Every structure is written in structure tokens, then in C-alpha cells.
């Protein structure tokens, strides 16, 4: 989910470094290059003279991607008009992920400034807001009267082509209507177009509309054209607007030429499309649940050939996938408590096979504290349960679906991460569980580890063909599957390859959340005023 995000920065109670007056602070924003430890300067605020509580006017505009960990560093310095700062100018720094700011209450996050040994450096308050002029959607309907006749044997077959003007004076096509056959007085169907596609958010920019007569061989005949703007079109909310269709060549040739017909704007309405950030800012919580495959086909955890084997130098594929996805999602979950289950193992004390045993061994409360807590419980379970089988997904999907069904007002959305080595044993039950879950506020991510063929997972993903079970079709596509092996980087840059994995499995979550909200007509709650 890409969106423009704007950060405002008022630090508080800064360290006073000026001998004769208060500090003159400036904030420098650095962005970490994805998959590396390198930081690049992104921008600076203005210098504010003589204050320890500056409120900066200059804002940073960043592209925001839900599916990426976007690490930011804010360094505060004593103001200087030179490009370089010395160590003596340093007032403190704060590290934060952009997702943490957006996922925090009302998009406000306060962080202590650190970095000056033995000194309290004050705090920095980060405010994030989404740039909003790009989310409006327009619906309009047009008709035409007395268009020029272009076809020899019949009337014309008219259609409209819309162009937005670019900064350099050129035009880019942004919409075509359908063709209305054999009429000089067509009425086109209403259509919908984003405002940014029509005029790039500039309400006074020219919108050019050409009228053509459709020909089967593609050599459509030009009837005429007219120009307008978003602002002019929007006036049609209160009145019909009639445009003359003009053909410049005919106008030059014929003295008595009036026009080539007229086009009337019958209706025009604007709606705001809600974004993923609107719901997060309105308080929607993402609840993250993990389910890990403990079937015997993974191999004995103590053996280096096992998919669960963790050497002293490297985490297992399971732990890597869990960490990559979990570390991004946790920014949007305020309590950072994650239910974590295993499936396909014989569980102590009686050795019964279980397909949803809590990794922390606490049936009453299977939640672990943070991603580190989940990893700890996962490693503990490997030492206490016996890997067995079969590979059943349905029980844990139904478990999360049961929780999701309890709160369907849009305040909670569930994401289930299943990590598995492969061939699924309860395909029919799993399809049934997913079709049922598709009407609930939840999404399912499946990461396949190991060398198995994962055709069944591709079917569950439902990107190509909508998943169905016993004649019932999934209401929404809620499953995203990726094979872990596609992300094992030959260069050995694990950080980069796990960032790519997280990006691919999480990229569909914002759209899936929005599709749930839309089908239920749930609007984001208004963030409380400041």
C-alpha cells in the first residue's frame, strides 16, 4: 500500500548546548537503505533560534509501504548554516520505523532522544498524516446531441476519449467510454475515475475530450473535441453543463460552421476512497497469529538436514520467515501479544496428536510477548514435542476464524501466518475453512519451506482462480502463498532476502483489509482531535 506520508517534528526539552542563550536546533532525517546498514540523509528541518522546545514547520514527505520495514533516524543538532555538523553540535537522536508512527495512536509517537553519554537529551514527538488529495473518486455521466454523421450507410458509432494535460503541455489518455452504436444522440454509461488520473490533483488543469466515430478496422473518425477542467466539471453537481464539440479543420474550411454537435454532462459526483492508513489511524488493530508445522517430514530438529535445525550461526528457515513477517506486523498491534500454535506433533504428557497446540504450553493463554517471545516458545516446543503428522491446516484456520467472528465491526483484523514444509493432508477441510473465513476480518499468509512441490498452496492462493468449496466461492481472496526457497539469496545477504520475502507476503494485506471494510460498508473511525 503505497501512500504519501508526511512527518511533522516538535522535539521537547532539548539539551542546552549554547553558553549564552538557549540552543538553536535543527533535525536531520536519515533513511536506512533497504537490506543494508547504510543511512542516507533524506532532508532537514529549518533552524529554530533560541529554544529548547522547537515546533518545526518544514515537513518530510515520504512514500509509505506497509509491507516494508522503513527505518528512520532523526538526529538533532545545534543549528548551523553549513552542511556539516561537528560532534560538539550533536543534541541527540531517535530511531523509529515509519510503520510504528503510523500504527501508533492518532499517528503520534513520542521517543526519547539518546546518544549523549550521561545526559538526558529530551524527547522528539513524531506526527504522521497521509496526503489526502489523491484519494477522491469521480463518477460522471455524459450524453451528446446532433453529432456529425460519419458513416456512409448508417449514423455514427460515437465514443469519448479523455486526456489529462501534463506539465510539459502534452496530453495523456486517461479514460475511454464505451461505443454507443448507430446514433447521433448517444447516452454513455456512468463511469468512475480517480481524480489523480483525471488531473493529477490540480483542479484547474485542462482536461481534453475527443469525440470519435468507431470503425471496425481501428481507423476511428474524429468528430470533434472540447476542453474543460475538473473544477468546471464539478459545477455540474448543481446544473447541466453543455459543451460544444468543435472540429478545427471544419471550422477553417466552412464559414457557416457552428459545431459538430454538443456534449452534455448529466451528472458528476465525488467520493473519497478510504485508505489502509485511514483505518489504522482510526484505531483498527492488526492481530497476528502464528502456526508452525511440526510434522515429521521436516526431519529431526537435532540434525543439520532438518528444516527446524538452528545452528549457532544461523536461524532455521521457520525462524527466519517468522521474524521477517512478524517484525513488520507487530508495529500495528498495540499489545504486541501474539497467539502462537504448532500443528502435526505428539504433545506431552500423553503423546496425543494435536493440530493447534500452544507453543507456550498455556492452553488458557497461547499469546507470546513480541516476536522474540514467539521464537523462544517455538524453540522450547521443538525440545518437548515429537514431530509426527499429518499436515492439517483446517483446525488452526477455524480457530483464528472463530476469534475473528467475535468482532466484525472493523476495529480488529486478523492475520494468520502458517509456515509449513508442504503437502497438505486435509485439503477439502482447508478449502472449506478458507471459504468460510473469507467473509471474516482476516487474511492468511502461507510460507512454504523446503524442497516440496507446493501446487496445493497455489490453489489456495486463489490469485488465478477464485477458491471454492462444495459449490461455494470465497467472498474475497484472503490467502497469499510464497515458497521460502525463492528468497534464499546466493549472495548470502539474508537481511535483504528476508525483506523481499516480507514485502511479497504482506503486499496484499492492505487491499484485503480494504476489501473487507468495503463489502461491509465499514467506514474508518475518526481519529480523536488533537
Automatic annotation (TrEMBL):
<dbReference type="GO" id="GO:0071277">
    <property type="term" value="P:cellular response to calcium ion"/>
</dbReference>
<feature type="domain" description="C2">
    <location>
        <begin position="105"/>
        <end position="243"/>
    </location>
</feature>
<keyword id="KW-0677">Repeat</keyword>
<dbReference type="GO" id="GO:0005886">
    <property type="term" value="C:plasma membrane"/>
</dbReference>
<dbReference type="GO" id="GO:0046872">
    <property type="term" value="F:metal ion binding"/>
</dbReference>
<dbReference type="InterPro" id="IPR045052">
    <property type="entry name" value="Copine"/>
</dbReference>
<keyword id="KW-0106">Calcium</keyword>
<dbReference type="InterPro" id="IPR037768">
    <property type="entry name" value="C2B_Copine"/>
</dbReference>
<feature type="domain" description="VWFA">
    <location>
        <begin position="287"/>
        <end position="488"/>
    </location>
</feature>
<keyword id="KW-0479">Metal-binding</keyword>
<dbReference type="Pfam" id="PF07002">
    <property type="entry name" value="Copine"/>
</dbReference>
<dbReference type="GO" id="GO:0005544">
    <property type="term" value="F:calcium-dependent phospholipid binding"/>
</dbReference>
<dbReference type="InterPro" id="IPR036465">
    <property type="entry name" value="vWFA_dom_sf"/>
</dbReference>
<dbReference type="InterPro" id="IPR002035">
    <property type="entry name" value="VWF_A"/>
</dbReference>
<dbReference type="InterPro" id="IPR000008">
    <property type="entry name" value="C2_dom"/>
</dbReference>
<dbReference type="Pfam" id="PF00168">
    <property type="entry name" value="C2"/>
</dbReference>
<comment type="similarity">
    <text>Belongs to the copine family.</text>
</comment>
<dbReference type="InterPro" id="IPR010734">
    <property type="entry name" value="Copine_C"/>
</dbReference>
<protein>
    <submittedName>
        <fullName>CPNE9 protein</fullName>
    </submittedName>
</protein>
<dbReference type="InterPro" id="IPR035892">
    <property type="entry name" value="C2_domain_sf"/>
</dbReference>
Amino acid at each position: 500500500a503505497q501512500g504519501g506520508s508526511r512527518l511533522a517534528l516538535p522535539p521537547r526539552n532539548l539539551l542546552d548546548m549554547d553558553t549564552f542563550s538557549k540552543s538553536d536546533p535543527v533535525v536531520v532525517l536519515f533513511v536506512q537503505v533497504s537490506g543494508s546498514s547504510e543511512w542516507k540523509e533524506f532532508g532537514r528541518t529549518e533552524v529554530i533560534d533560541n529554544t529548547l522546545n522547537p515546533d518545526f514547520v518544514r515537513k518530510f514527505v515520504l512514500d509509505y509501504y506497509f509491507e516494508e520495514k522503513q527505518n528512520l533516524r532523526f538526529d538533532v543538532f545545534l543549528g548551523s548554516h553549513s552542511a556539516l555538523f561537528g560532534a560538539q553540535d550533536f543534541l541527540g537522536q531517535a530511531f523509529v520505523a515509519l510503520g510504528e508512527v503510523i500504527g501508533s495512536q492518532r499517528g503520534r509517537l513520542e521517543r526519547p532522544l539518546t546518544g549523549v553519554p550521561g545526559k538526558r537529551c529530551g524527547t522528539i514527538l513524531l506526527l504522521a498524516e497521509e496526503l489526502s488529495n489523491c484519494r477522491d473518486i469521480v463518477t460522471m455521466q455524459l450524453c451528446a446531441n446532433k453529432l456529425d454523421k460519419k458513416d456512409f450507410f448508417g449514423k455514427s458509432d460515437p465514443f469519448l476519449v479523455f486526456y489529462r494535460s501534463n506539465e510539459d503541455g502534452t496530453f495523456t489518455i486517461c479514460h475511454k467510454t464505451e461505443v454507443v452504436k448507430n446514433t447521433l444522440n448517444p447516452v454513455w454509461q456512468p463511469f468512475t475515475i480517480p481524480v489523480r488520473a483525471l488531473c493529477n490533483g490540480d483542479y484547474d488543469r485542462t482536461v481534453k475530450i475527443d469525440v470519435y466515430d468507431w470503425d471496425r478496422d481501428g481507423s476511428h473518425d474524429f468528430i470533434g473535441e472540447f476542453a474543460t477542467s475538473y473544477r468546471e466539471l464539478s459545477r455540474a453537481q448543481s446544473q447541466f453543463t453543455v459543451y460544444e464539440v468543435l472540429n478545427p479543420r471544419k471550422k477553417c474550411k466552412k464559414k457557416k460552421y457552428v459545431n459538430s454537435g454538443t456534449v452534455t454532462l448529466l451528472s458528476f459526483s465525488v467520493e473519497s476512497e478510504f485508505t489502509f492508513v485511514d483505518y489504522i489511524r482510526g484505531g483498527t488493530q492488526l492481530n497476528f497469529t502464528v502456526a508452525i508445522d511440526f510434522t515429521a517430514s521436516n526431519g529431526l530438529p537435532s540434525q543439520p538436514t532438518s528444516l527446524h535445525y538452528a545452528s549457532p550461526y544461523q536461524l532455521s528457515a521457520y525462524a527466519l520467515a517468522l521474524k521477517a513477517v512478524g517484525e513488520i506486523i507487530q508495529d500495528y498491534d498495540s499489545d504486541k501479544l501474539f497467539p502462537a500454535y504448532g500443528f502435526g506433533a505428539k504433545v506431552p504428557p500423553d503423546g496425543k496428536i494435536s493440530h493447534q497446540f500452544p507453543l507456550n504450553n498455556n492452553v488458557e493463554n497461547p499469546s507470546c510477548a513480541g516476536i522474540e517471545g514467539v521464537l523462544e516458545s517455538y524453540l522450547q516446543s521443538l525440545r518437548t514435542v515429537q514431530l509426527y503428522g499429518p499436515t492439517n491446516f483446517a483446525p488452526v484456520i477455524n480457530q483464528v476464524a472463530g476469534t475473528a467472528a467475535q468482532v466484525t465491526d472493523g476495529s480488529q483484523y486478523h492475520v494468520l501466518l502458517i509456515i509449513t514444509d508442504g503437502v497438505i493432508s486435509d485439503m477439502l477441510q482447508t478449502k472449506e475453512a478458507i471459504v468460510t473465513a473469507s467473509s471474516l476480518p482476516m487474511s492468511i499468509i502461507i510460507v512454504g519451506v523446503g524442497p516440496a512441490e507446493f501446487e496445493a498452496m497455489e490453489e489456495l492462493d486463489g490469485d488465478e482462480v477464485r477458491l471454492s468449496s462444495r459449490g461455494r466461492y470465497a467472498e474475497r481472496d484472503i490467502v497469499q502463498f510464497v515458497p521460502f526457497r525463492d528468497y534464499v539469496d546466493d549472495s548470502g545477504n539474508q537481511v535483504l532476502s528476508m525483506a523481499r520475502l516480507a514485502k511479497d507476503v504482506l503486499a496484499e494485506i492492505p487491499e484485503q483489509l480494504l476489501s473487507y471494510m468495503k463489502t461491509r460498508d465499514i467506514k474508518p473511525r475518526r481519529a480523536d482531535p488533537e
